[in-house]
Design brief:
alpha/beta; 6-stranded parallel beta sheet; 14 helices
Length: 548
């Protein structure tokens, strides 16, 4: 039986609390938020809020848009107790896994290090929860806006308290894997090595057909045998053992391993939950490792997040999660070029400017780039990057012709994505984008962007955000309140589309539209957190500044 070594000095007991000792993004001190309203009730166990959800239905009747306001009243209930949480990463020994673990340990032990810029403090810069704020309201004494960290709106797990574990096809302990990744400066690695060395990845699953052939040399830490059913049972046992060994209340499983090729959707194989489970039992070739990890997590009642672009969540996997009321989220971390693209395209289209083509070029030298040098794995990434502008373009029928019957898409900008493997640049990814647009009277506009970023240092905070938010959402239940009936509290829907802000190709509830516009994604997250406190969305109308 394999036991995973617990993260050293767990629970963040050595984290200083004084503001002067730690970076503001890592501190534990914040001003509590209490909503004084008859619609918000606090008990020792719950925050219970009543929230009116306003909308509008629009129908075209005889050439006239008829708009009818709607209102539904919901009660949200959030469990206040923050659990002892474990994060199990698939790909623990990769660049993201080692960088994230090192970041948590450096913050937990307040390890400082020197670079040519001077003494550096550990921090969680890049984390939406820990390093960004939400506009809560206005201070009546000064008339100024009051902003609070997103992590303080509802009770959330502090990253320093996470217990880290997971799987990897490479057997290197995390100190050696950190050195192999070449992400962090040597002075920091030197101090972290004794804390990272005891952490060793559990054996993982390796099906060569799903990742690039160049990954075979790393695959020396594998679950034995070829039975996919036996592999599934091993993964489930790993999750249970990790949870028990570390006395955890909850576990989130996160795929940050290699990008896989797309799985073929085959009727009778992965189209329903029953067929998918049967396919695992019979060892069908189209059951991918990531889908197997997702199924294991679902059956163990753990949220599963897919941080890579492949179609892990085949229809049968989504149905299985629905049946078990387990939580899933994905796909693919949105950390650099795609995040900029979702902002800039939204800006251009909303400004009435028509992008005609978007050309995106990347080169990087880490193992992710090496794996993506294979055609099938690149195709998975190309799909997730290419769909990011669809909803923004589709929202403006003045610039783009809507799709006709039988068409998958209407008029659309030419969109090219290129990714090349360049070992010399390591984790420092280069991204070059050209936006070629039509402007007034047949004119043309060209915007070129050159973006250099350290890939894993952007991705790691997002893994924290996605995992901690997923855990928070497991503690939120709701019920609809009306004159006719009041339903019982139930969990949120299986697919956690509120995580979209951090994801390139957001998974959404079947039958609902995907939102890629970054501003709308962020707004949805803020509004939901406020709704759990019974607060209405406070936009930028600023009516008080526009009237007498």
């Amino acid at each position: 039986m394999v036991h995973q070594t617990p993260t050293p000095l767990r629970s963040g007991i050595t984290t200083p609390t004084a503001e002067t000792d730690v970076h503001p993004t890592a501190t534990r001190t914040y001003t509590p938020i209490v909503v004084e309203s008859e619609r918000t009730v606090y008990t020792d166990d719950y925050i219970t809020s009543t929230f009116d959800y306003h909308g509008q239905t629009v129908s075209n009747e005889g050439g006239v848009f008829k708009v009818r306001p709607t209102k539904k009243t919901f009660e949200f209930r959030t469990t206040r107790k923050v659990p002892r949480m474990g994060l199990m990463m698939v790909g623990l020994g990769g660049n993201n896994g080692t960088t994230l673990t090192a970041t948590i340990l450096a913050n937990r032990h307040n390890i400082t290090w020197r670079t040519k810029e001077g003494l550096q403090k550990p921090n969680y810069i890049g984390s939406v929860l820990r390093a960004s704020t939400l506009r809560l309201g206005v201070d009546p004494a000064t008339g100024s806006d009051v902003h609070v960290p997103l992590s303080s709106v509802l009770p959330t797990v502090h990253p320093n308290d996470l217990v880290i574990g997971g799987w990897d096809i490479s057997s290197l302990s995390l100190d050696e894997a950190m050195g192999r990744a070449q992400v962090l400066p040597y002075d920091l690695q030197r101090q972290l090595a004794p804390l990272m060395a005891p952490i060793k990845p559990l054996p993982s699953i390796y099906y060569p057909d799903f990742i690039a052939a160049n990954q075979e040399e790393r695959a020396d830490n594998l679950i034995p045998g070829e039975s996919k059913q036996a592999h599934l049972e091993t993964l489930r046992k790993d999750i249970r053992d990790f949870k028990q060994a570390n006395a955890l209340d909850s576990v989130v499983v996160f795929w940050t391993a290699n990008t896989e090729r797309y799985s073929e959707i085959i009727p009778g194989v992965n189209d329903t939950a029953a067929n998918l489970l049967k396919a695992i039992e019979t060892g069908h070739d189209e059951v991918s490792p990531s889908t197997l990890f997702a199924v294991a997590s679902i059956l163990e009642g753990c949220p599963f997040i897919n941080g890579a672009p492949q179609n892990t969540f085949v229809p049968g996997c989504i149905e299985l999660a629905e049946q078990h009321k387990s939580f899933i989220g994905g796909d693919d971390l949105k950390s650099g070029q795609t995040k900029v693209k979702s902002v800039l395209t939204e800006f251009l289209v909303n400004a009435g400017i028509k992008p005609l083509s978007i050309a995106s070029y990347n080169h990087l030298g880490n193992n992710d780039g090496r794996n993506l040098s294979a055609e099938k794995q690149f195709r998975s990434k190309e799909i997730s990057k290419s769909s990011v502008v669809d909803d923004m373009v589709g929202a403006n029928h003045l610039l783009y012709k809507p799709k006709s019957e039988g068409e998958a898409k209407g008029e659309h900008p030419n969109h090219l994505v290129v990714i090349k493997y360049m070992p010399a640049v390591g984790d420092s990814k280069r991204a070059i984008d050209e936006y070629y647009s039509e402007i007034c009277m047949g004119g043309r506009s060209v915007i070129n962007i050159f973006n250099e970023c350290e890939d894993s240092l952007l991705a790691s905070p997002l893994i924290l955000d996605l995992s901690i938010l997923a855990e928070l959402l497991t503690r939120v239940s709701y019920r609809e309140v009306s004159k006719e009936k009041t339903t019982e509290h139930e969990p949120l829907y299986t697919v956690l589309s509120l995580l979209s802000y951090m994801l390139k190709a957001p998974l959404v509830k079947p039958g609902t539209e995907v939102v890629n516009a970054l501003g709308r994604q962020r707004n949805a997250l803020e509004l939901f957190l406020k709704a759990c406190l019974g607060l209405e969305g406070q936009g930028d109308l600023l009516l008080e500044s526009r009237i007498w």
